[in-house]
Amino acid sequence: NEEAVAFSQYPRPADTPQWNSDKPKLKDIRIMGYSMRTADYRYTVWVQFDPNSFRADFKDVHAGELYMVETDPNQDYNIYKNASHGWLLKKIL
Amino acid sequence: DGMNVLFIVVDDLRPILGCYGDKLVKSPNIDQLAAQSMVFSNAYAQQAVCAPSRVSFLTGRRPDTTRLYDFYSYWRVHAGNYSTMPQYFKENGYVTLSVGKVFHPGVSSNYSDDYPYSWSIPPFHPSAEKFENDKTCRGKDGKLYANLVCPVNVTEMPGGTLPDIQSTEEAIRLLNIMKTNRQKFFLAVGYHKPHIPLRYPQEFLKLYPLENITLAPDPWVPKKLPSVAYNPWMDVRQRDDVKALNVSFPYGPLPDDFQRQIRQSYYAAVSYLDVQVGRLLNALDNVGLSNNTIVVFTADHGWSLGEHGEWAKYSNFDVATRVPLMFYVPGMTTFPASQGARVFPYLDPFSHIGGSAPQGQSEKVVELVSVFPTLAELAGLQVPPACPETSFGVVLCTEGTSIVHYFNVSEEETEEGKEACDDTDRCF
């Protein structure tokens, strides 16, 4: 579809910060955060990741973030839990 | 015959530039480039850490295809023998040259910056690079430390210089050779600053008195931020001056005054970088190549300056992923200057007054993975084909798309009343 979208991602070794959260080695990656950016919103899902098969399991969502650009350009108010975002998960897939 | 390419990539530079609307920074040379370029205001990296981002945009593949999320694998061995952007230009008759930090050094570029595949001659690395993390920062007690905030007297540095100064000198030397040989070139110049340590000539501090430096607009960890999303800025914590603050893990915070010192030094490092870019572009004028050289200016990812209680990159936040991205294309983004006229005269950030608006600006959301196909199209080369769903076995394809069609300023992007542009040449 025409909408311009940018995809980023970031790996994590665990659900809570630890000494190697910033730069986990491949073998220690357990979660991958996939971000989808459009002019209107930023949507991120942190999903289970298997470093051996390189597979992300989008059925196993550890956490999510949703920020609306117009009302929250600095991404300070995560509305993931307040908003229905099933369609966004489909879209990022 | 195709234009030359000067590809400037900066380490950890978020769009803290005059041409991106920052009111505090002094970046006259980069702003001057923007004034003759197509500037993308919403460009994002595929991953906010050096090696994965660089391998991604240099191969035109996403991290899930390069399978590089850390620093410890070489895509040709680990994922697939993907052609790179410089390799593609080399295969199309260009002399390809690398100066400074273009690929991330080490395993991820086969300890060779992917030479000889990507480059015509062995890549240049400034000799001063090896002192980058040494104890060269003078503390209040007069002793030397490996600090995060590190304004220095350059004459006291090993060899009396700094890596980016050496990189600029080498790039200028190569431009002169290319001019003499009359060869078509793809010259990539990778600057280290403002990557940490924030080590730069101390005189640049004068541009940013501490009383003018504020905290980030949102220097707290957001209530509803999932803990997995938070980056605990470990590399910053390991610096001597930060260690001495005994800040608690993982959320800190750093003392306000020190937060402002970090921000002050990031700005100072950006102006130091601007001087290097200014010297380089001035040299392009001197060798008379400004009218037939495409210039690309970008970064590998951004850097948090205290927003969300975070520092450094290592996250999916905009401040860590958003990058400057601009393309100067003579005859397309600007009319060729008359013979002998200077296009990029050097501008001194200590004396230059006034800013300049970008020539063309696009708000479209774009990605660094699109730089490869875009530059191929601008240089008149065949655009690499789009990758199939799974492309581990495909040597040449791209997971990005050319964004040259955004160079037209379309209806919804023009301010009220400005005529929409449907003819790029006429517009520019």
Distance between the termini of chain B: 21 Å
Biggest sheet character of chain A:
4 strands, antiparallel
Please estimate the helix content of chain B: 10-25%
Strand order of the largest sheet of chain A: 1-2-3-4
Mean pLDDT of chain A: 94
Question: What is the global morphology of chain A?
Answer: globular
Multimeric status of the protein = heterodimer
Strand percent estimate of chain B: 15-25%
Outline the biggest β-sheet of chain B: 7 strands, mixed
DSSP strand tally of chain A: 4
What is the count of DSSP helices of chain A, taking H or I runs of 4+ residues? 1
Give a nutshell description of this structure.
Chain A is mostly beta strands and 93 residues long. In chain A, 8% of the residues lie in helices and 41% in strands.
Verbal overview:
The complex is a heterodimer of chains A (93) and B (428). By secondary structure, chain A is mainly β. Chain A is built from one helix and four strands, in the order E-E-E-E-H. A four-stranded antiparallel β-sheet of chain A has the order 1-2-3-4, covered by helices on one side. Chain A is globular. The relative contact order of chain A is 0.18. The model of chain A has no long low-confidence stretch (mean pLDDT 94). By secondary structure, chain B is of the alpha/beta class. In chain B, a hairpin with a 5-residue loop joins strand 10 and strand 11. The longest helix of chain B has 31 residues. Chain B starts with a strand and ends with a helix. At the A-B interface, strand 1, strand 2, strand 3 and strand 4 of A face strand 2 and strand 13 of B.
